[in-house]
Amino acid sequence: MPKFDVSKRDLERLVGREFTVEEWEDLFLYAKCELDDVWEENGEIYFKADSKDTNRPDLWSAEGIARQIRWALGFQRGLPEYEVEKSDVTVYVDERLKDIRPYGVYAIVEGLSLDEEALKQMINLQEKVALTFGRRRREVAIGIFDFDKVKPPIYYRAGEKTEKFVPLGFEEELTLEEILEKHEKGKEYGHLIKDKPYYPLLVDSEGKVLSMPPIINSETTGRVTTETRNVFVDVTGWDLNKVMLALNVVVTALAERGGKIRSVKVVYPDFEIETPDLTPKSFEVELDYVRKLAGLELSDGEIRDLLERMMYEVKLEDGKAKLLYPAFRDDIMHARDVLEDVLIAYGYNEIEPEEPKLAVQGRGDKFVEFEDAVRELMVGFGLQEVMTFNLTNREAQYEKMNLQYGRDYFNNPPAELVEIENPISPKWSALRNWLLPSLLDFLSQNTHEEYPQRLFEVGKATLIDEDRETKTVSESKLAVVLAQPRVTFTDAKEILDSVMRHLGFEYELEEVEHPSFIPGRVGTVIVNGQTIGVIGEIHPAVLEKWGIEMPVAGFELFLRPLYTEPYL
């Protein structure tokens, strides 16, 4: 979750009222943040804000927090309004960037009066949005420039790798290729464009380079100081909706500092747009739905009041609230998102807890008890239990296991993963569909520990099921790995025999070819004619990819086909 520093004095200047540090602890909750730390520096108090919502980049700066608090406290109500005046500035987008970094959107903000704190917040917001929302600049990268040093029209074009400019923080010119090799940001983000035939460049009508998205700004125009009054904002990426949202977040934050927003015409090879677009977005929610899920007896007027304090324009009609909300938000996807805003405005601490009145008694789920019994059984066999993350990535589940994505390996693993559309990190971009890669990952991180290492996990694998409403199903599985010198298929089979005997099942093994295992030492586990798992010795190529030098054998089973009552 994004964390950032804010000055107490700067926040209070933006809110328009002073508060005690204790009061600020509660106020941060309105902006979905927690006060993580407080310290004093040069006679000024600073806060460490810890944002708890990765879908609200508008709250990742002092401007956004202060705006949210002004509304929540009722200092302002309804929909925030930002006037956008047209400028005569045009940006032309090069068709050759289509497969390199296709979209750029732009705006001008004039009349700023920036002090050191305002500069810090501008840089912080720029970096946090690009890092978290923009997936480390892959999806969104932001540049802010001294507009008085720019001569329109501006061109977002494909640059030759031999072209030169002075990157931010340097004194000498470097070629675009040299920037990727020598500049700190080039080394960090160069992989995003290094293999492309051209590198993106933003230049003005005089050929002066503004930036090399998504790597670095120019020293000439990209250094904004307290003397800067007018800025040009540039956002580039792969998804037009995402870069538009990021632009809206940045320009409205600068408008909170007194800036006047002016739009820019962006000319693409096949269409034109004016940016930013701050047209409010709409949503509709049933008032009874809000009351029911909130568990509060709220009148229609009270719901309207709470929503207006969360920056909604509200029209009540036929038992519904027809809403308009700001263009810098993109997190309203369900009525529950609106309900959350109602509860934040109401105050979670103001809700009186009630003991539920139930006509039945609760009891443990029988299958969960079965899973616990299996765990006890495995501990009895001398294995150590581990618990690993359900989140993983395609590389771990397939590439490191010598597998081809899209091919079904006897459902161990299935052909495809359930992948996350907008993951925070590529490392956590999918839900695992088998457990053995997780156990090998665990072994790879514990090669310094003594052997043998005999591990098991009872955990969930998420599979695609088009017949279900959610299109997925979560299956319980048992996975075992044995890492020790001279471990064999027989060692894993001895444990499998004991498991099946204690659960009261007979099984068969059928030899198969599975790239994760050594040929001739792998088989599927069949119970009542159904394939429920796989067992074998892990292939040396797989062990090498995981950095494991010790031989490993193991197996993995679906537990649901082995569940009966009574069990064990």
UniProtKB/TrEMBL annotation:
The gene is pheT. Belongs to the phenylalanyl-tRNA synthetase beta subunit family. Type 2 subfamily. Residues 278-353 form the B5 domain. This is Phenylalanine--tRNA ligase beta subunit. One of its GO terms (molecular function) is magnesium ion binding. The keyword Metal-binding applies. HAMAP family: Phe_tRNA_synth_beta2. It comes from Thermococcus nautili. Its cofactor is Mg(2+). One of its GO terms (cellular component) is phenylalanine-tRNA ligase complex.
